[in-house]
Specification:
Layout lengths: L3 H14 L13 E5 L5 E6 L8 H9 L7 E6 L11 H7 L4 E6 L9 H7 L3 E4 L3 H7 L1 H9 L3 E9 L17 H12 L3 E5 H7 L15 E5 L19 E6 L15 E5 L11 H10 L4 E4 L3 H9 L5 E7 L24 E9 L2 E8 L5
Parallel strand pairs: 3-4, 4-5, 6-11, 6-12, 7-8, 7-11, 8-9, 9-10
Antiparallel strand pairs: 1-2, 1-3, 12-14, 13-14
Length: 369
């Protein structure tokens, strides 16, 4: 059974893991803390970037000789395979660690098995400590491994009566400056930011992260079925971050190949559902093959409706401003829901005051069969 020191170490490891959000894909975020027999921390670290040392290696290097006889507390089961780096399970064995406590088992079939290797070497292993907290922090990667597609967070800002703009189309700014800054944090933690053609036409968004130094800029994705919304000179066509334009298979994209900073263009089939547009799952497949494991969906009501219809929304973050408009575009349209029994029910996991706004985070409730 885990000790109080190990519980505290796991909480610290979860916090350390979060530092890697947005920079480790397609790898998970992982934190590791080494504690000695007295419960004192002798080394800690987190996975900082894909291809770099894993969390256990950073912690072992920090501990040096003090790792011998220590307990390694890790948010994810130590890996047992050799990829761009060596197996962490063997590194822990070689360092003389005598006990390993991890939160979540590794579901990746090519990397799992670390616990078995450790036990075979005579190391005491305990699994499941603060598993829920660790899984929440690593939910994007775990979703991607389990479902074979990126984890999708739909973010929106709206008035209390559910409007994203006034009747005349004006929308700047419904949310507070603090909320807009928080969105840049979400972008920094994501591998890709996705908008639709309506947002591209109305706002000419830049979609890059601002206000955060040293971040890995997310892939900017515009779903532009007819290839008419993104024009030469659009802000997403600068060199601040990579850009991908998703278009229909028959779209004319010659104007996109003449821009100074040429975007990647991917051609996708049309959706088979009634809302039109491109196939959401084909888009997610294309992003997954490019190493994208987390998507921040910032598109408008139509694109959000397409993702909801496709069952491809894993988390919703709404910034609700204390404003009433009475008319104007709604947050969500054409989501394939015609009656209350078909509603997408959500479980609110967090509510937080952000500036003058209320940020609500929720996840879909699994439907009963």
């Amino acid at each position: 059974m885990a000790t109080a020191a190990e519980v505290n170490a796991m909480r610290r490891a979860v916090a350390l893991a979060a530092r890697g959000l947005g920079s480790t894909s397609p790898n998970p975020v992982v934190g590791c803390v080494l504690v000695d027999a007295h419960g004192e921390t002798v080394g800690e670290g987190h996975h900082q970037r894909a291809g770099g040392p894993h969390a256990e290696i950073h912690a072992l290097r920090a501990a040096g000789d003090r790792a011998r006889g220590a307990t390694a507390v890790v948010t994810l089961e130590p890996c047992a395979h050799t990829g761009r780096t060596g197996p962490c399970a063997q590194a822990l064995i070689d360092a003389g660690v005598t006990r390993v406590v991890y939160a979540v088992g590794d579901p990746n079939p090519t990397a799992t098995g670390g616990a078995t290797v450790l036990r075979a070497a005579g190391i005491d292993v305990e699994a499941g400590l603060l598993a829920a907290e660790a899984e929440t922090g690593n939910t994007a990667w775990l979703t991607a491994v389990r479902l074979g597609r990126p984890h999708v967070t739909w973010k929106y800002a709206a008035t209390l009566d559910g409007r994203t703009a006034a009747a005349d189309g004006t929308s700047r700014w419904i949310s507070s400056a603090a909320s807009r800054a928080d969105v840049h944090r979400l972008r920094a933690e994501s591998d890709a930011v996705v908008v639709g053609s309506g947002t591209a036409r109305a706002d000419d968004p830049h979609l890059a992260v601002r206000g955060h130094d040293g971040v890995t800029q997310p892939l900017r994705v515009v779903v532009d079925t007819t290839a008419t919304a993104v024009k030469p000179g659009a802000r997403v066509l600068d060199d601040a971050a990579p850009t991908l334009i998703a278009v229909a298979q028959d779209a004319d994209t010659r104007h996109l190949t003449t821009t100074g900073h040429r975007p990647e263009v991917v051609r996708l089939p049309h959706a088979t559902t009634g809302h039109g547009g491109l196939d959401v799952h084909a888009l997610l497949d294309a992003l997954y093959t490019r190493g994208v494991r987390s998507v921040l969906l910032e598109g408008g009501a139509t694109l959000a409706g397409a993702f909801v219809t496709a069952g491809a929304v894993d988390r919703v973050i709404g910034y609700l401003a204390p404003v009433l408009l009475g008319a104007g575009p709604a947050v969500l349209t054409d989501a394939g829901i015609s009656t209350l029994t078909e509603a997408l029910r959500l479980d609110v996991t967090e509510t937080l005051r952000i500036g003058s706004d209320l940020r609500i985070t929720a996840v879909p409730v699994p439907k009963e069969h």
